[in-house]
Design a protein that fits this description.
Zincin-like; single chain; alpha/beta; 5-stranded mixed beta sheet
Length: 291
């Protein structure tokens, strides 16, 4: 995947400061983190598009990002049923050194790091150039949500966070596993653990469900897509509540009247018998930058 997977470690002073800020401002907190303290002074605004900030010398890459940005923004706002709180900003690294300076997790192609900083790697101007529109939409989906509830809120499970972003991006971020592979994992007894509850210092990612990272993102996308396809009105109510900083589990109960595991029983039962899962012969693409 293309978003950081590091847990945020809270110190007692940090918790106190965060609590005071929330009480005083009433706004969603964005967690401070050492990675968010790296200065962004090396980036300069792209001429003609102040939303795109580039590493000097990589104007052509910046122009490609600028051209892809309107469609990606429209896609995210439609999928989230809300506009961005403020215009998004995209930081474009044309060199590996630039990306490594800001994104500590190795082998990514893009990331939204703490304090909602969206950073693109040079991969998307090179061997993964074709992935730029989809990954830009995926990361903008994270940024859009981060503007409202803060960076990687622990009350929103990872599977929904990533599945919703991948669905928004029409598969972006989940390209390297097929539907058939996701269904095969389910038939093998490896499925997203919907009952696991995250905490600020522990997030349940792919390994917690016994899944490979690509299977996890694909399966998560299928789950969110199934939920939306079966009743978009209720899906809309759920995600609007989430964006209003409601606890996911509480919002889910309020909208559907039962827990996610109960709701998705139909999805998992269908995955065990759906012949379309067995007939998905889409070729697996070459190995990506590791999520």
């Amino acid at each position: 995947m293309d978003c950081p997977n590091s847990s945020t470690n809270w110190s007692l002073p940090g918790v106190i400061v965060a609590a005071v800020c929330v009480l005083l401002s009433g706004c969603a907190m964005t967690v401070s983190h050492p990675r968010a303290l790296t200065p962004l002074e090396s980036f300069v605004p792209l001429t003609g598009d102040a939303r795109v900030w580039i590493e000097p010398g990589y104007e052509a890459y910046g122009e490609r990002v600028s051209a892809a940005l309107p469609a990606a923004i429209a896609k995210v706002e439609a999928a989230h049923y809300l506009p961005f709180v403020r215009p998004p900003r995209v930081h474009v690294c044309g060199s590996a050194a630039c990306f490594k300076r800001h994104v500590l997790t190795p082998k990514l192609s893009a990331a939204v790091i703490p304090d909602n900083r969206l950073i693109l790697s040079p991969n998307l101007d090179g061997r993964e150039k074709h992935r730029l529109p989809a990954l830009l939409a995926h990361e903008l989906a994270h940024l859009h949500l981060g503007q409202r509830i803060g960076h990687y809120h622990s009350t929103l499970p990872v599977w929904f966070h990533e599945g919703w972003a991948s669905l928004t991006a029409e598969g972006g971020g989940a390209e390297y596993a097929t539907d058939a592979q996701a269904y095969a994992a389910i038939r093998a007894g490896r499925q997203v653990k919907l009952g696991a509850r995250d905490t600020p210092d522990r997030r349940h990612r792919a390994a917690a469900s016994g899944l490979g990272i690509h299977e996890f993102y694909r399966q998560s996308m299928l789950l969110v897509g199934w939920l939306k396809a079966h009743d978009e009105a209720r899906f809309r109510a759920l995600v609007l509540a989430v964006q209003d900083d409601a606890d996911f589990e509480i919002a889910f109960w309020n909208v559907y009247g039962h827990a996610p595991a109960t709701r998705f029983a139909g999805f998992f039962d269908g995955a065990l018998t759906d012949p379309m899962a067995a007939n998905d012969t889409q070729a697996v693409q070459a190995a990506p930058a590791k999520p």
